[in-house]
Amino acid sequence: MRRDVFLHNLLYDVEKIIPADWTVDWGDSPLVYKIYQELPVVPLSLEVPLSLEHGRNQQSSKPTIRDLGHFLWVTFGLTRVSDPGNDWDSFDQRSEELFRRFVPSGGALYPSELYVYLNMDDLPAGVYHYDAAHHRLVLLRKGNCDSYLTMALGYYCDMSECFAAVFVSTMFWKNFFKYHNLSYRLQGLDAGVVIGQLLEAAKRFGFTTSVYYQFLDRAVNHLLGLNQWEESVYAVIPLSIKSDINWFAHKREGIEIVWDKELYRKLPAVQHHSYNRSRRIRKYPMLIKMNEASKFESTDCFQRVRGEKKPAFGGPSLALPNVKPLNWDLMEASRKRFSPGEHFVLREVSQQQLATLLREATNAFFYRNDLDRIDIPEIQEQPRSRVSLYCCLYFVEDIPAGAYYYDYPSHKLRLIRLGDHRPILKQAINRSDFNLLDVPICLHVVGDYHYYRHKLGYRGYRIQQMEAGILVQKLLLVASSIGLAGHPLLEYDAKTCDKIYKITNVNRSCLIQVPVGPYRLPNKLTGHLYV
Predict the structure, then answer these.
(1) What's the average pLDDT block by block, 10 residues per block, for the chain (531 residues)?
(2) Residue 524 three-state SS
(3) What InterPro entries would the database entry show (predicted)?
(4) Whole-prediction pTM value?
(5) Fewest beta carbons within 10 Å, which of 6, 10, 378, 449?
């Protein structure tokens, strides 16, 4: 199957990319976390923070291993255990898959893994894996790799200015065993929500960050010792405590192009054994094919990609109430976040709640990355986003039911189509246990149908999915902090949603659906893994 056809079917015709006879072998499922064996480990503090508000826990001095451990745990640690269906036989047999983290994941399978390169005072410099199952670091490679990583990022980041870099990877088999080829779409979104949580955690710990989607893949995978046919890095996020660091001002004139194959030869190979439990791993040729097509072989491939100008709408607009910046506790919002499913309750949502949700969520657009290559918040210009928010509203205070586009620079709703679209959305969803008639706000993250392929090639698709995931995670956290809840969904008919918003003929697509609204707590057993 051609790659562009595959990506089209991922969104519009999933049944064409998943065999009709595909069955899930739950008895041979992989672990939801990666376990390295027979390597040096660094235990991390279990005295995790119980509150993380804006302006708190800022570090005036160099971060310690304790700070780093807390940061990794808030980002991707195991935080609670939950029995989804009171199935005690399942609890006994597959108890580790009932562990949850602060971020959502399709089927709670968590295909992402975290690695960190550290150059700190209180432990050896080198590359580590974050072992979420045991809340510890596992040493994979010892040594200072500042110059190597600086070159792998195309000289757009001086790693000597940073104390760490986080690598967000994807393990292909982790959710392919259940979702087959659909996992390629899920893996990008899953990586994005992890990055979204990481960016919020970094603000609370006083870390300055920038997200790098463009890097020399084989060189970075080689640095971590990854088998590229099983796992690959999707994003690199350096961390610094210097608030005045200028990430993209480095003069690149006269710097030679760095080639992947030349760079990774500068480091000796490392190979480590890990355990994933599955006895038989089935092949996933399309995932390998797409991953190979997405790789960058030289720094000459790196591109600057600005977002789109806002679309033009001829209809009326509705100004939303002004909202003050929301001072919310990341830990509290993360604890309360869950996906309600059938537990939504139809109650009126105030304009203030809606305005807060949309304004605070779209602040996710303001993050440093190697696509814009601008230093936010120093810039005066608002960055153009590569993804947008559209919504179908019903039972929102003094707002007519209809489909709208959220114009975040003006903080207005642009009317696209009046009417109650809940029955249409309900018919377009492929789940019998989910009643969209009980949901007052149905959000859609919309992006370019061609995923900036003209500049980024097939890498643009996974970048687009990650940016959508960042926005989704911010939506979920803000919803949680104002007494609502959201439930990310891919089981919907994207063609129907595109028609509602009249974007079919303008090369825009609904990437993910997020119903948001009031809810009742489900009757299930849940316990936090901290006190």
Answers:
(1) 96 95 94 95 90 58 91 95 57 58 94 97 94 97 96 93 97 97 98 98 95 97 96 98 80 78 94 93 97 96 84 84 92 92 94 97 93 70 81 97 95 96 94 88 97 95 98 98 96 96 93 97 73 53
(2) coil
(3) Bacteriocin_Proc_Enz (IPR052544), Nitroreductase (IPR029479), Nitroreductase-like (IPR000415), SagB-type_dehydrogenase (IPR020051)
(4) 0.95
(5) 378
Which residue blocks in 77-145 are alpha helix, DSSP H?
A: 88-93
Helices (H), 206-349: 217-224, 260-263, 285-294, 330-336
- E strand or H helix that includes residue 511: strand 508-517
Q: Which residues pair with 349 in a beta bridge?
A: 396
Rounded-to-integer distance, Cα 511 and Cα 501, Å: 13
- In whole angstroms, give the CA distance from residue 175 to residue 468: 19
What DSSP letter does each residue of 481-506 carry, written as one string?
A: HTT-EE--B--B-HHHHHHHTT-GGG
Q: Let me know the angle formed at the C-alpha of 53 by 48 and 55, rounded to the nearest 5 degrees.
A: 115
d(CA 361, CA 320): 15
The strand pairing partners of 442, in sequence order, are 392, 515
**DSSP strand pairing (317-319 vs 274-275):** unpaired
Residue for token pair 């948001």: 516
DSSP state of 266: G
Q: Which amino acid is at 51?
A: S
Residue 84 corresponds to which tokens in the numbers above?
Answer: 């989804």
Backbone angles phi, psi at 464, to 5 degrees: -60, -40
* Closest by Cα among 17, 106, 97 to 489: 106
CA-wise closest residue to 303 among 189, 221, 231, 386: 386
What's the rounded Cα separation, in Å, for the pair 501 and 40?
A: 54
Task: Give the span between the Cα atoms of 423 and 442, in whole angstroms.
Answer: 12
pLDDT of residue 434: 84
**Coil, helix or strand at residue 259:** strand
The two counts, helices (H) then strands (E), for the chain are 15, 19
In total, the chain counts a number of residues equal to 531
What Å distances lie between residue 106 and 199, 319, 365, CA to CA?
Answer: 21, 35, 23
Q: Which two tokens stand for residue 370?
A: 């190697």
Helix (H) or strand (E) holding 166: strand 164-171
Q: Write out the two tokens for 156.
A: 């757009």
Task: Tell me the C-alpha distance between 165 and 118, whole Å.
Answer: 7
